[in-house]
Write a structure and sequence with these properties.
- With 157 residues, the chain is an alpha+beta fold.
- Helix 1 packs across helix 2, helix 2 crosses helix 3 and helix 3 crosses helix 4.
- The protein has two domains: 91 residues, Winged helix-like DNA-binding domain superfamily/Winged helix DNA-binding domain (Arc Repressor Mutant, subunit A), CATH 1.10.10.10; 63 residues, Dna Ligase, domain 1, CATH 3.30.1490.
- It has six helices and five strands.
- The termini are far apart.
- 47% of the residues lie in helices and 15% in strands.
- The radius of gyration is 18 Å and the shape is globular.
- The strands form two sheets. It has a three-stranded mixed β-sheet with strand order 4-3-5, with no helix packed on it. It has a two-stranded antiparallel sheet with strand order 1-2.
Amino acid sequence: MVFQEERITEIGKKLHQAGMKLTPQRRATVSTLLEYQAKHLSAEELFTLIKQEEPEIGLATVYRTLDLLTELRIADRVTFEDGVARYDLRCENQQHFHHHLLCSVCGKVEEIHEDLLVEVEQEVLHKYGFKVQDHRLTFHGVCSSCSENTKQSEHGD
């Protein structure tokens, strides 16, 4: 809970630097994103969760808040196999968006926070003169749990 409050305070400072306030509605959105960050929630899913605590909040407010957080690079909009825009808070001091592992069997999404593309970015700069500002990478495959289940069923266990 202490970590969550620290992150909310940090995000509030970023908003203030951009001339915005951390309104109760924005705070509720950020708090819910933090609480459920492993779930990669859509705007509608966030709205449903926030509405339980803040019944006066509207869906349009949640969308506006998410657009603002995305514009300020506090959050990122991601789209997986289902085509639904989902939201993911950036880690503190994260230069680039983190990567994802998407299981094609169960749909589980895991995050990779290491920047695996530093050398690729340097190569792009060297070969093409293009300075990468950000990137998104999703690896599609089979997670360890589904791989293990497949092995067990193949062996008749």
